[in-house]
Design goal:
By secondary structure, this protein is an alpha/beta fold. The protein has helices at 2-9, 34-43, 56-68, 88-100, 121-138, 150-157, 175-183, 200-208, 238-249, 253-269; strands spanning 18-23, 46-51, 72-76, 104-113, 142-147, 166-168, 187-190, 214-216. The chain has ten helices and eight strands. The longest helix is centred in the middle third of the chain and has 18 residues, at 121-138.
Length: 271
């Protein structure tokens, strides 16, 4: 991790309070060194991390991590890959998890994935709708997975106008999709893919979108920014995303950090 320590030493130490709004700290890749991961995050200025649920087990583990570590918060939900495994008691169990912990801030990661289609599309849509209904009932923000399913995701979300907040995780749409999301007041989660040399589509979106709609995220351990591409991603690496947003918008990094943190506080904490 010497390259990471060098990077942090290059100036990220002064960025206090940024929030990783989408992580998977329950992943087995973090089992052996979670304390060191959190220390490096703090050194990079990442003081709060929201770890997602993909299924009931991951959601439960997210809640346990949140109770064990003051800087970790949780979301619960069923990823579209796992939709085919859902039975009624699955969603009821998630509802209980959400109700039993003040550190559960959102319902997610939920949505549609038409790229892999690990679950039938009609099943994905049914489970997606059921989870949106619960999130609306519990007044929780929703964190949306949308891969090659923009039209159906936006169509289904349109039926749920009372959601507390909608976060489109790892935004991958074009300017037209971004415009529709902005018109509805959604937030766009921006992660390490922004730094990939060929991802001009996302860079164009970030240039265009008002800063008040952007959130920082890692999706760790996946999709590490370009300096660590191919390695395990972790919250400390999010500073590379912040720097790229600042470069694209020609704004000081401190302003990007302040604005995205305020956005996260509004979306997840209602502040």
């Amino acid at each position: 991790m010497s390259d990471l320590l060098f990077y942090i030493g290059g100036g990220t130490m002064n960025r206090a309070g940024i929030i990783d709004t989408h992580a998977h700290l329950d992943d087995k890749k973090f089992r052996q060194d979670i304390q060191n991961v959190l220390k490096r995050a703090a050194a990079a200025g990442v003081t709060r991390i929201i770890t997602m649920g993909n299924d009931f087990s991951a959601s439960r583990h997210a809640c346990i991590l949140a109770e064990q570590h003051p800087e970790i918060y949780a979301a619960v939900g069923i990823h579209p890959h796992e939709a085919k495994e859902v039975v009624p008691r699955t969603l009821e169990g998630l509802r209980i998890l959400a109700g039993n912990s003040s550190k559960v801030l959102a319902w997610g990661e939920i949505g549609l994935d038409y790229h892999y289609d690990f679950s039938p599309r009609d099943c994905q849509q049914d489970v997606f709708r059921k989870q949106l209904e619960i999130a609306a009932e519990l007044e929780l923000p929703v964190v949306i997975h949308d891969r090659d399913a923009h039209e159906d995701v936006l169509s289904i979300l349109k039926d749920f106008t009372g959601l507390k907040a909608v976060i489109i995780h790892c935004f991958s749409g074009d300017l037209a999709i971004a415009e529709e999301c902005l018109n509805r007041g959604y937030y766009l989660g921006i992660g390490g893919t922004l730094t990939y040399p060929k991802n001009n589509k996302l860079r164009n979106v970030v240039k265009y979108v008002s800063l008040k709609h952007l959130l920082l995220e890692t999706d760790c351990p996946y999709l590490a920014p370009q300096p660590w591409r191919g390695k395990r991603n972790e919250p400390a690496f999010m500073t590379a995303v912040l720097e790229e947003i600042a470069r694209l918008k020609e704004m000081p990094e401190e302003e990007i950090a302040k604005a995205t943190t305020a956005n996260a506080q509004k979306a997840f904490w209602g502040e």
